[in-house]
Amino acid sequence: MGLVWFRLFLVVPSVTGKHPAIIFAHDLSSKSDEFLAEAILLARVRPSAVSLLIEAPPARPSGWRRNFNPQIENNDRDIQIQAVVDVLRGIDLLAMRDDVDVARIAFIGHGHGANWGTILMSIEPRLRAFVLIAGVISVTDAMRRDDPEWADMLYTLGPEHFERYLSSLEALDPIRYVGHSLGAPVLLQFGRFDPYIPSSQAERFGAAVRGRSLSYDSGHAVNDPVALEDRGKFLATRIGIGAIKARAYTRP
Fold first, then answer.
1. What is the bridge-based pairing of β-strands 50-53 and 9-11?
2. What b-and-e string marks burial along 172-183, b requiring 16 or more CB atoms within 10 Å of the CB?
3. Average pLDDT, stretch 151-163?
4. Residue 215 CA to chain centroid, in angstroms?
5. More confident residue, 152 or 109
6. Max Cα–Cα distance, the chain, nearest Å
7. From CA 69, how far away is CA 94, in angstroms rounded?
8. Residue 244 has what pLDDT?
């Protein structure tokens, strides 16, 4: 068996006992520490939560990183499948811990992490709630739009290879999975000024998912403090964490 290395953060409350847990999947423009401040905050509220922050293959350190490369057949598809497997292994880790209530595990994903969450919605019954932030309902539809970035890729790969590349990725498009959800509640969060996800695409995602969809005065990061509080309220009702008051929070 080969060694698979990836970096993660496990944030544990100081209070003993069984806690709800949250597993985080970061946006690929970030690293595993994207949600670290939020995880620390969740460990301090009462009731508190255990948090696990994974690191996706393209964000790992040099030597262990798996980079996207559309020139290699199925490379980008396989990287994203590995990221989903990493989340499943993370859930296994949480479920084995004595301080985690396995009946109260939730998922928070941003960007590509949100897209992977739609796959998990259809295959992982241990996840009892999902917060999907700035996801794209169909990545391949977006790549087929008249955008200079994708036009450059089309020119580089050539039409035939480009279509094979998109066909490979289509198997991971969220639109293929949202209709097969196992029924866990979902909160969608979007930024009104997101340069990658226009309001029409956010609305399309919201229409496809049986959940609540909220928009904020932010960009792709969706870093409005109200968004943090809203997902805290959502998870409070679903897995029993304490209320988050981000704007009133002060260092202990």
1. antiparallel
2. bbbbebbeebee
3. 80
4. 17
5. 109
6. 58
7. 32
8. 83
Average pLDDT over residues 42-52: 94
Confidence (pLDDT) at 72: 83
DSSP the chain: --------EEE--SS-S-EEEEEEE--TTS-GGGGHHHHHHHHHSSS--EEEE---GGGSPTTT-----TTSTTHHHHHHHHHHHHHHHHHHHHHH-TTEEEEEEEEEEETHHHHHHHHHHHH-TTEEEEEEES--S-HHHHHTSS-HHHHHHHHHH-HHHHHHHHHHHHTT-GGGTGGG--S--EEEEEETT-SSS-HHHHHHHHHHSSSEEEEESS-TT---HHHHHHHHHHHHHHH-PPPP-GGG----
Backbone angles phi, psi at 247, to 5 degrees: -75, -25
Helix axes 159-170, 148-157, angle to 10 degrees: 120
pLDDT digits (tens, 9 = 90+) for 239-248: 999 888 765 4
**Short-list 227, 139, 144, 146, CA closest to 177:** 139
Higher pLDDT pick, 34 / 191: 191
Q: Which residues contact 242 (CB under 8 A, 6 or more apart)?
A: 45, 46, 47, 48, 236
Using the predicted structure, report yes or no on whether residue 251 has a pLDDT greater than 80. no
Q: How many CB atoms lie within 10 A of CB 132?
A: 29
- What pairs with residue 11 in β-bridges? 51
pLDDT per residue over 60-99, tens digit each?
666 666 767 778 888 889 888 988 999 999 999 999 999 9
Torsion of CA 162, 208, 31, 68, to 10 degrees: -10
β-sheet bridge partners, residue 22? 51, 106
pLDDT of residue 231: 95
